[in-house]
From TrEMBL:
The keyword Hydrolase does not apply. The keyword Cell membrane applies. It comes from Poecilia latipinna. This is Solute carrier family 7 member 3a. GO terms for molecular function: L-arginine transmembrane transporter activity. It is a multi-pass membrane protein. It comes from the Eukaryota. Belongs to the amino acid-polyamine-organocation (APC) superfamily. Cationic amino acid transporter (CAT) (TC 2.A.3.3) family.
Length: 641
């Protein structure tokens, strides 16, 4: 029994490194840097730019929404830089799933990939329904009226939608066919729609600055009273609803709350990381694509929000359709049709951006044996993961057709924020490990290190046993407390790598506890309640100590085309932001997340063989040097208990 548990624990914690000596891939390397930038911009700059600015400006920040987008962009850029380094380090498809696999092990990799799949499926279905709804509004609700009259679905519990959305179903199936046909064709369509979207946004920004009035950035309470003249609304009610006036009517709290909402507007750039085996030069194009797309999106959000709040007083904005209302306010009502075209193009690129990475993550997991292996089947002519594309497209289409997705949208946030956090952690850990991820060996292997022994693991289906071929590593130092702050040299060793690994785990626990307190007791903290302030100070000081310990350790001298600056501060701050946003989600979302993880655990055990072996095909060669500590610790605990 102990042996079985030990083998199971080793399986959950095994990691791998990639052999780049053979750069052959089953995918078609046809995507340029421009294609990746367009993919990132199209996926990130969705219909939210046409709606979100009005909602946040009216309800949370006023004209200070421009600062909200600035703060959100800086936070998103931190996550983007971490993805960019991994894109330069690991030119293989799989995104955050693969990054987790090579750094923290199979269990975290499966959790990441499983939740990314859920995020992409829900995202695809929800954007498809939004596209259908937007088009329906243009034709004065004739489509929804017909389906409600003839095919209304009345089911208690709000699980199913009011009516089956046939338009959304057809749209998803059409794009599934486009993705299955070839990646270059999909990239061309994406560039066309993204270009139209950017032209429309440019028109909105220029029009806003031409027709806008800077006085709308410095409104006073008298303006509120004149707006509500003739009503029974008191000044206190106006202050609660519209703030105190000025550039930031809702104060710092409103800006921070708005920034948290605006953070989700920058979600989507991670789809670029799934193109590693389809980019012509992934180690260069992926970092450039991620950073450039985030910068373009920031300037678009910043410009639109500035133009919108100058065209019209923020308290008069329509939260459902702010731009058409703003153009009507300045006397340019026909411009609403231009905005509608841009909105549909934005939804189209956002939909394509949700669907593009979905089959590639499924393919990567299936090829590793973590999902059914049939899903890794490639089309030899189009060079696309054909079965994963069709299956994921059909599932997303059925969800868009039948379900009310409002209650499931927050599940997207968990998957995305979890992936962002793990990528930041992986970047931090790998920069302080000895050696590198590359192997000069032509043979790719899966191996494990437990209790100092090198153990070959057999492939899942073939029964082949993989041998061992280890590079020379620095000698293992004897751990002393002095090494925490005064390492013995400038080159990482296994001991210094283990120190970083353990310290990172500790600081993640501290950050999680701190974020739980901040999410639930923020008001008590702001008023100086000692029972909240003291624990926060202690946790913050412990985090600083951990950061200093990591900072003092030697970094790997491995040359990369892109490296995250300001280690370890930047990745850890990204982790803090992501975990804090996760703690803002309600308990019902976490319950649904738990159910999804139970389903994932059942699927995982269905696909593994009796020895939990994984055949890695042409991908893996394990990183024994990354951190043997976790495998050793698991082994000791399992043997003891």
């Amino acid at each position: 029994m102990a042996s079985m548990l030990s083998n199971f624990g080793k399986t959950l914690l095994r990691r791998r490194a990639l052999d780049f000596s053979n750069e052959e891939t089953q995918f078609a390397r046809c995507l340029s840097t421009l294609d990746l930038i367009a993919l990132g911009v199209g996926s990130t700059l969705g219909a939210g730019v046409y709606v979100l600015a009005g909602e946040v400006a009216r309800e949370k920040a006023g004209p200070a929404i421009v600062l909200c987008f600035l703060i959100a962009a800086l936070s998103s850029m931190m996550a983007g830089l971490c993805y960019a380094e991994f894109g330069a380090r690991v030119p293989k498809t799989g995104s955050a799933y693969l990054y987790s696999y090579v750094t923290v092990g199979e269990m975290c990799a499966f959790i990441t990939g499983w939740n990314l799949i859920l995020s992409y499926v829900i995202g695809t279905a929800s954007v498809a329904r939004a596209w259908s709804s937007t088009f329906d509004n243009l034709v004065e609700q004739k489509i929804s009226g017909f389906f409600k009259a003839s095919m209304e679905m009345k089911v208690p519990g709000k699980v199913l939608a009011e009516y089956p959305d046939l338009f959304a179903l057809i749209l998803v199936l059409l794009l599934t066919g486009l993705l299955a046909f070839g990646v270059s064709e999909s990239a061309l369509v994406n560039k066309i729609f993204t270009g139209i979207n950017l032209v429309v946004l440019g028109f909105v920004i220029i029009s806003g600055f031409v027709k806008g009035d800077i006085k709308n950035w410095n409104l006073e309470e008298g303006d509120f009273l004149s707006y509500k003249n003739g009503t029974n609304v008191t000044q206190k009610d106006l202050t609660e609803k519209f703030g105190d006036g000025g550039f930031a009517p809702f104060g710092l709290a409103g800006i921070l709350s708005g920034a948290a909402t605006c953070f989700y507007a920058f979600v989507g750039f991670d789809c670029i990381a799934t193109t590693s085996e389809e980019a012509k030069n992934p180690m260069r194009s992926i970092p450039i694509g991620i950073v450039a797309s985030l910068l373009i999106c920031f300037f678009a959000y910043f410009g639109v929000s500035a133009a919108l709040t100058m065209m019209m007083p923020y308290y008069q904005l329509n939260t459902d359709s702010p731009l058409p209302e703003a153009f009507s306010y300045v006397g340019w009502a026909p411009a609403r049709y231009i905005v509608a075209v841009g909105s549909l193009c934005a939804l189209s690129t956002s939909l394509l951006g949700s669907m593009f990475p979905m089959p590639r993550v499924i393919y990567a997991m299936a090829e590793d044996g973590l999902l059914f292996r049939g899903l890794s089947k490639m089309n030899s002519r189009t060079k696309t993961p054909i079965l994963a594309t069709i299956v994921s497209g059909i599932v997303a289409a059925l969800m868009a057709f039948l379900f009310d997705l409002a209650a499931l949208v927050d599940l997207m946030s968990i998957g995305t924020l979890l992936a962002y956090s793990l990528v930041a952690i992986c970047v931090l850990i790998l920069r302080y490990q000895p050696g590198n991820l590359n192997s000069s060996s032509q043979t790719e292997k899966l191996v494990e290190l437990v209790e100092g022994e090198k153990v070959a693991v057999s492939g899942g289906d073939s029964g082949d046993e993989y041998g061992m071929e280890m590079e020379d590593r620095p000698l293992h130092e004897t751990f002393t407390a002095k090494l925490l702050f005064c390492p013995s040299g400038k080159i990482p060793t296994k001991t210094s790598g283990m120190i970083v690994y353990v310290t990172t785990a500790v600081i993640c626990v501290l950050i999680t506890i701190l974020c739980i307190i901040l999410a639930n007791c923020l008001n008590q903290l702001l008023v100086g309640h000692a029972a909240v302030v003291v624990p926060c100070i202690i946790l913050a000081l412990l985090c600083v100590v951990c950061i200093i310990i990591i900072w003092r350790q030697p970094q790997s001298p491995e040359a990369l085309t892109f490296k995250v600056p300001l280690l370890p501060w930047l990745p850890l701050f990204s982790v803090f932001v992501n975990i804090y946003l996760m703690m803002q989600l309600d308990i019902s979302t976490w319950c649904r997340f738990s159910v999804w993880m139970v389903v994932g655990a059942f699927e995982r055990f269905q696909t593994c063989d009796p020895f939990c072996s994984v055949k890695l095909g042409q991908l893996a060669h394990v990183t024994l040097f990354i951190c043997p500590f976790s495998s050793r610790l698991c082994h000791l605990l399992l043997i003891r208990y």
